[in-house]
Amino acid sequence: MPIRRFVQCNLLLLASVFGMTQPASAQGVLEGEVAVSSQEDGVVTEGLGRILSEILVRTGGSADAASHSAAQAAIAAPRDYVQTFTFRSETVLQAGVPTRLLYLRASFDRRTIQSLLRDGGLDVVASDGAPQSLRIEVSPLRSGGDFARCLSALRSLPIVRQLEVTEAAPDRLLLRATVAGGSGALLTSVDEGGVFRPLGTGSDPDLVLLELL
User: Fold this and answer.
1) Burial (0-12, 13-18, 19+ Cβ within 10 Å), 176
2) Which residue in 12, 38, 126, 141 has the fewest CB atoms around it within 10 Å?
3) pLDDT in tens, 107-127
4) Cβ pair 164, 19 in contact under 8 A
5) 83 with 29: CB under 8 angstroms?
């Protein structure tokens, strides 16, 4: 089957699975979700650290919010700070093969996050970072499985509140997303995930360019 027809046949399924709005944070609690490979202790600790890092970035509105010494110490020992965490799984088609994906979702107390941000020199934390509507271009796409992998990785980022496919070409995918903290927070988050290489923004500052690894 030609790849263009494959894309057209599968986009509705992929969009329905991955294009949902991220749940809003409960009052006093900041939440995040990342994809993980298993429920082993080491994997969970690493995942909790990724979630904490992304929450700090989106709440502080700067990549530096997760880089100071107090933040790095917390990210290295996230179980000392996490309130609750749960797992969920879903099955998607990757290259025509049903594949089980596992996600870790965690919540952190807003006051804890604010304290860590203040330790980094941010005295006032008013919100989770101003949301910005962005266009995202991902390339290259080499197979049908790349579509699922791309959407799964973006949806797992807690700063991505909404995600929808706007156009699919044989070698690239165009999406629109609402992102807490804007393009800077998105570029920082994807750089740490190992799925994309951030290429920066295009001539339009609302266009984020990502290379799929």
Assistant:
1) middle
2) 126
3) 998 888 888 988 888 644 444
4) yes
5) yes
Radius of gyration from C-alpha coordinates of the chain: 17
Q: What is residue 46's predicted lDDT score, i.e. its pLDDT?
A: 95
Read off the pLDDT of residues 4-61 as tens digits, 9 standing for 90 and up.
444 444 443 444 434 333 344 434 578 888 889 999 999 999 999 999 998 888 787 7
Give the residue carrying structure tokens 């997303």.
177
Residue of 41, 147, 60 whose CA lies nearest to 104: 41
Rounded to 10°, the helix 41-60/110-119 angle is 70
CA distances from 176 to 100, 179, 199 (A): 25, 10, 17
| Mean pLDDT calculated for residue range 129-140 | 85
Residues 163 and 113: beta-carbon distance below 8 Å: no
pTM for the complete prediction?
0.53
Token code pair at residue 77 = 């020992």
**Pair of tokens at residue 205:** 């500052």
Distance CA 176, CA 133 (A): 7
